[in-house]
Structures are given as structure tokens and as C-alpha cells.
Amino acid sequence: MVRLSKDDIARLRADLPPEVDAIAFHEGTEPPGCSPLNAEKRDGIYHCRVCGEALFSSAAKYESGSGWPSFFEPLSAEAVGTKRDFKLILPRTEFHCANCGAHGGHVFRDGRRPPASAGARTDGCWTFDRRRRSNTPSPLP
Ligand SMILES: [Zn+2]
């Protein structure tokens, strides 16, 4: 479920660089290891790069070894939506911003969490920005 209207999303997309739009709205994947957020250790909130929705807390961030910023859980169940992704041989669960639909990454189980828990690997990691608790749109690169 996406909360913003198609017109609102179109306005946000018009300001995105093409490479950002390709990942956010065509489920592209940023190569592992290139996000500056991998090294981010400060307290804060990670926001959707497109619409500014607060998605993850630094309190839930951990090092998964995947090369992408990873989180145990989103800030709230309402912050993200999910769907099945069949781009690889095995189906995966893609997650996205529940507000604008921007691709955020994939849900996975890496064995570092209790079996009942899944992590969120943000392979669309550039869609997140570190902010304090505000919900304003992120600046573009
Ligand atoms: Zn969003």
C-alpha cells in the first residue's frame, strides 16, 4: 500500500537523478560496499531518500557482512511494504517505502538473528538518509 498519490510521487520523481530513480522505482540495486551509510555509527533515523518517510532507527542497524546497511526491523510495521520478487531463481521478499513505493532492499535471514526474525538489507541503500527525528524530504546529491 502506497499512501502518496500518483501525482505526488510523479512530482518527487521529477527531481530525482536518473540513477536514483532507476533504483527507487525500477528496483535496481546499488553495488554492495559503496554506501557511505555502511560506516554510519551515529544515533539517528534513516529516511526514504525520495519522500523523507522515517524508515529505520540506528538502534536496529547491524553489520550483516552483506555490504549493504542492514537493520533488524523497521521503525514500524506501517513504514514499509513488501512483495515477492522473482528476479533471481529463488523468490525473495522486496521491501519498499510504504509512503511513496521507493524500493528499499530485501528481507533476508542471515543466521545472525533469531530464526523467527528477518533482517532488512537495504540494497537500494542510497534511498536512505541519516536524519534526526524529522520527516522532511532528503536533499538530493
Ligand atoms: Zn518514500
Explain this structure:
The chain has 141 residues and is an alpha+beta fold. The protein has a single domain, classed as Metal Binding Protein, Guanine Nucleotide Exchange Factor, Chain A (Beta Complex). It contains 2 helices and 9 strands. The longest helix is centred in the N-terminal third of the chain and has 9 residues. The chain binds zinc ion (ZN). The site of zinc ion (ZN) has 8 residues, from loops.
| Poorly predicted segments | 133-141
Number of helices: 2
CATH architecture descriptor: Beta Complex
Percent in strands: 25-35%
Residue-averaged pLDDT: 78
Biggest β-sheet: strands ordered side by side in the sheet: 3-4-8-7-6-5
Helix content: 10-25%
Which fold name is given in CATH as the topology?
A: Metal Binding Protein, Guanine Nucleotide Exchange Factor, Chain A
Shape: globular
CATH class: Mainly Beta
Q: Topology, pairings included?
A:
Elements: H1 6-14, H2 18-26, E1 45-48, E2 54-57, E3 61-62, E4 70-71, E5 80-85, E6 92-97, E7 103-108, E8 119-121, E9 128-131
Antiparallel strand pairs: 1-2, 1-9, 3-4, 4-8, 5-6, 6-7, 7-8
Bound molecules: zinc ion.
Zinc ion (ZN) is lined by residues 48, 50-51, 53, 97, 99-100, 102.
Highlighted features:
141 residues, alpha+beta, Metal Binding Protein, Guanine Nucleotide Exchange Factor, Chain A, 2 helices, 9 strands
Question: How do you describe this structure in short?
Answer:
The chain has 141 residues and is of the alpha+beta class.
